[in-house]
Design brief:
Largest sheet: 4 strands, antiparallel
Structural class: alpha+beta
Strand order of the largest sheet: 9-10-12-11
Radius of gyration: 18 Å
Number of helices: 7
Number of strands: 13
Order of helices and strands: EEHEEHEHEEEHHEEHEEHE
Distance between the termini: 24 Å
Oligomer: single chain
Strand content: 25-35%
């Protein structure tokens, strides 16, 4: 049995700002929040995914939290993947429900790293200036900062990155979001787990970054 494991945002689904640049395809709205249109997918991609999901496993793989993933109506109605990997690999859903075995493994492995609460406390003490707008946690697995990129120096980011790696956390700057993720919380570790659990012979992958 084979599977197609794919990232979502900027790989299969796009914001309104992104699709405004593409006049060659038609898009359908698949996510709203508080009345605001959030994400779209092209009709062409949607039809292909429906075909893929019938023939092999389609496994969404995303940094989105469980709640954020569930907002995507396409995967709750037209295409209902049996498995989905959320929270940067920290959670696996089977038929929409969190897979407890994987969650337990992740929770046990997190003991190897600095705890989330301690990490955030120390991080706040290290940050200088007013370039951080908000600090949020995702499913209590990792943290991300909404930042003003033009207000922070590359030197300060370098020192924060080095410090976080020493604590067993991996940093990643994506636009105005600065992520810090514990080493055990990894998308492709979750994919490998499913590969063994389901007995997959081959996994096709797609994404906008190597992580």
């Amino acid at each position: 049995m084979r599977a197609f494991a794919s990232d979502l945002d900027r790989t299969l689904i796009y914001s309104s700002r992104m699709i405004e640049q593409d006049t060659q395809q038609n898009y359908e709205l698949i996510e709203t929040l508080d009345g605001k249109e959030i994400s779209y997918i092209s009709n062409y991609a949607s039809k292909l995914l429906q075909k893929v999901n019938k023939e092999i496993y389609f496994i969404p793989v995303t940094t989105r939290t469980v709640e954020q993933y569930r907002r995507i109506t396409l995967f709750q109605t037209t295409i209902q993947p049996e498995y989905a990997i959320t929270s940067n690999g920290g959670r696996i859903l089977k038929n929409g429900k969190v897979l407890s075995d994987w969650s337990n493994r992740i929770n046990a492995s997190l003991e190897e790293c600095l705890s989330l609460d301690a990490f955030v406390q120390q991080l706040e003490n290290l940050i200088t200036g007013n370039w951080v707008e908000r600090i949020r946690h995702a499913d209590y697995l990792f943290v991300y900062l909404i930042i003003k990129r033009d207000h922070v120096s590359s030197e300060e980011l370098y020192h924060l990155f080095e410090w976080s790696r020493e604590q067993g956390w991996q940093p990643s700057l994506q636009g105005r979001k600065l992520y810090f993720v514990p080493n055990p919380v990894n998308k492709w570790k979750a994919v490998d787990y499913l590969k063994k659990e389901i007995g997959l012979s081959y996994v096709y992958t797609a994404g906008d970054s190597p992580s």
